[in-house]
Write a structure and sequence with these properties.
Elements: H1 5-22, H2 37-43, H3 45-61, H4 63-82, H5 84-107, H6 109-128
Helix pairs in contact: 2-3, 3-4, 4-5, 5-6
Length: 148
């Protein structure tokens, strides 16, 4: 699969946003949920409530999308329960990618600011016209064939 810059930004952004809560990695000392979400919420009640409120608002705005995301998270959890080694490998790869992106942003903050703004504009366009943002094969399945 040929990855473009948009894919490299979108994939981690969506995974981080939606899977971060359910499939939290070892985020000791980092903001966000730790491996034990209940413990993290007990330690950070205000941030926990903010995250819950933000998710509720997003789900109220687009319940269908929220249900799709919940279904994907449940599917991902089932796959991880069946093959924890593969999920651990993917988490490590994602953590390495985040560290790489963080280092690039620290080295060139203006470029990151520009990319974030481009992504915001892209998301806004997608909200206005969702069909224009659907890409065949994005889910790693060949174009025109459903993923299993």
């Amino acid at each position: 699969m040929k990855l473009n810059i948009r894919s490299l930004v979108l994939i981690p952004a969506f995974l981080g946003l939606f899977a971060g809560v359910a499939l939290a990695d070892d985020a000791a000392g980092k903001p966000g949920p730790a491996p034990n979400r209940q413990q993290w919420c007990a330690d950070n009640p205000q941030k926990c409530q903010e995250m819950k409120t933000r998710m509720q608002e997003k789900c109220a705005q687009d319940p269908k999308r929220c249900e799709e995301i919940k279904a994907r998270m449940a599917e991902r959890k089932a796959k991880c329960d069946a093959n924890p080694e593969e999920c651990q490998k993917q988490r490590e790869q994602m953590n390495a990618h985040r560290a790489e992106m963080r280092a690039k942003c620290e080295a060139n903050p203006e470029e990151c600011k520009k990319r974030r703004e481009e992504m915001r504009e892209h998301r806004e366009k997608c909200r206005e016209n969702p069909d224009s943002c659907k890409h065949p094969g994005r889910d790693m399945a060949p174009a025109g064939k459903p993923s299993t």
